[in-house]
Fold this sequence. Notes:
This protein is an all-alpha fold. Helices cover 35% and strands 0% of the residues.
Amino acid sequence: MSDYNRASGGAGDYQSLLKADCEQCFGLCCVSLPFAVSADFAMDKDAGSPCGSLQEDFRCGIHAGLRDLGFRGCTVYDCFGAGQQVSQVTFKSRSWRQAPESAKLMFEVFPVMRQLHEMLWYLADALTREPARPIHAALQDMMGKTKRLTQLDADSINGIDVVSHRAEVNELLIKTSEFVRAEAARLTKSSSGRRKTYSRGMDLVGAKLKGADLRGANLRGAYLIAADLREADLRWADLIGADMRDADIRGADLTGSLFLVQGQVNSAKGDAGTKLPPSLSRPSHWASGAERR
């Protein structure tokens, strides 16, 4: 029986299986990925080179103080559970330290697996959307196809045409978004009046959108960096790929928003008044509701 079928609540519960479990991972994000000195990282690191803070047990030695020590980028990264999949399934619990000859392939497979797991997250989200029921069968088929790719051997995974597969998945996600946002428009028509329309990839850096009615907005790939979204209504808005770094979402309502992921939430500024989908966690570094201006 598949993990998807074992998730008793269906697609929504399946998303719980796509969350990082660092205890079951060989510190892959701390080794395989590169980073450079910036506002997000305090040092340079090459791909395939272990971070100096990675301990022998594959845990981070400075985890509790990452943001204070200049490693904010680590706190917003989300592997969607790819780390434990590669470590425990693809490489059958043998670490790159135990089998150095496998290290290069393991580090190459990890980013591919991460993309596949990200697609699974979006597909699981789409399957919870009642307005998209006409394409639920197609979404389930794509979920199964993507899941099977994650179960291949390491060499096969490394040879996957991820770009082509993502294009197939994205076609279904776009249709899902259209169904959901059309229903949102119908539900809010009588109370919304005339609202500004938004388009994918829109530049909204630093935009003043406090209290804005963004229900059902198309914010796919939008640049929301440092945007003021305090108390904005983002229900049913499509946020796939939106850059939300330092976006102020204190008091905002993101329940029901489409394709929102933990990394986006972690990179934004929220508080106790921010409403999130149940599949996502409230970051520990967020401010208290009392600090909202």
